[in-house]
Amino acid sequence: MDGLNTVLPESLVARMQAAPEAAAGIDWTVTVLVLAGLLLLAVVVDWLTQRIVRPLLTRVVRASPTQIDDALLARGVIKQVSHVAPALVVYLGVALVPALHDTLSLVLGKAALAYIVLVLALAVGAFLSALNDLYERRPHAHDRPIKGYVQLGKIVVYTIALITIVAVLIGKSPLLLLSGLGALGAVLLLVFKDTILSLVASVQIASNDMVRVGDWIEMPALGVDGDVVDIALHTIKVQNFDKTIVTVPTHRLIEDSVKNWRGMSESGGRRIKRALHIDQGGVRFLDAAMRARLSRFALLAPHFERKQAELAEWNAQSPERASEPVNARRMTNIGCLRAYITAYLQSHRNVDHGKTLMVRQLPPGPEGLPLEVYCFANTTDWGEYEGIQSDIFDHLMAILPEFGLRLFQQPGGADLVAGLAALRAPGPATAGMDTDTNTEVHA
To answer: How does it sit in the bilayer (predicted)?
Structure first.
């Protein structure tokens, strides 16, 4: 029984050591009956605790106006603590069993004490979870989550409990075991490598306010494109827009590139950035007919007034500019289209006029002349945003023929069929030719 000296009270150990001498001559049946009575008492205490004491405490907690005890009840703190009572009966009563063998007494005492330590550790873990639940009810909880720190606290509690249980079972002091952990430092670092990395990442994420629950983030390398639903010590859960759940190690948010769309959500607007690819063959100067046609557009009236004054002043500076149109500055249909799109966006009620708004030409290429629209919708709702963007470009594509322009697109199957049909149709040069034999037909 020397192993109990480090984990049991001295008075209890003394009584256990004196029990065999005091009970000398006692029949073993008495020992069995007393031991059975002790175990039966533990069962009765457990029944009373679970059937009477715990339900009574539950009713008291539910009737209480405070939320703290409700959180403790929901996380099972009272349930865990209630299991201490029967183990405590066995732990304290084992020394009172007469003529009990030392080995059996030692085993029962250690088992009861180890169970008490385990239950208390689980109760502390449930208490920490209850604290996290109470914290998450606060308005700013999503901005500064503490779930990672709570999980770290649980790891510390469970580690201490594990060391204590091992110390109880082998009959050594917990401090002696802790002193021997120095030699296992390298092994522990290897085992808890992910935990250490996740802890550092959690601190950086929380201190720099990088990611919150509810943020829309993108990590293309990991297939992440959705809303953050949970931030824990080791993992972060993201629900993609296809409703799949992606679990990402916390430290990957520090190591990899992450796009967070929170700024867009907080700004109240979402960017529209799309180009119309114009067929460059239709770009030309305005003639009188097109000038008259475009003058019908109310949105272009300020542009015409301003541009005509500017061009007249410029061309008046040199006689050759006025005498020869090729030397003069003139308006173009593509320039008028840019002015029209700008005015159209400025008058659109679903475009945020307080943010950047412009229409610009990008470098021309084999797919035509890109005319890019850059503005912001005044909503962040995905469905509304797509509807606004589609309405804008529906209108712009439909208005292009008014400017003598058309969109550029690669030839499709219908275009190829029409082209082949045009080649096969007899023209002026083949009017007198047999189209089947390609020979001249004589009357």
So the answer is: Multi-pass membrane protein
Pairing assessment for the beta strands 270-278 and 369-377 based on DSSP bridges? antiparallel
- Let me know: does 223 contact 245? Beta carbons within 8 Å: no
Q: Kindly report the number of other CB atoms within 10 A of residue 389's CB atom.
A: 19
Residue 54: Cβ within 10 Å count: 16
Per-residue confidence (pLDDT) for residue 336, from 0 to 100: 95
Structure tokens belonging to residue 290: 């097109």
Helix 193-208 vs helix 147-170: angle between axes, to the nearest 10 degrees? 150
pLDDT-above-70 percentage for the chain: 87
- So what's the architecture of 209-266 in CATH? Roll (2.30)
| Percent of residues, the chain, with pLDDT higher than 90 | 33
The Cα 402–Cα 235 span in angstroms is 56
Domain spans, the chain: 2-191, 209-266, 270-403
Strands (E) across 250-368 are located at: 259-260, 270-278, 358-361
Predicted model pTM: 0.55
CA–centroid distance for 154 within its chain = 24
Maximum mean pLDDT: which of 60-74, 98-112, 254-268, 417-431: 254-268
Helices (H) and strands (E) in the chain — how many of each? 19, 8
Report CA-CA distances (Å) from 259 to 203, 227, 254.
Answer: 19, 12, 12
List, in sequence order, the alpha helices (H) in 75-141.
Answer: 77-82, 84-93, 102-136
Could you give the 3-state DSSP secondary structure of residue 352? Answer: coil
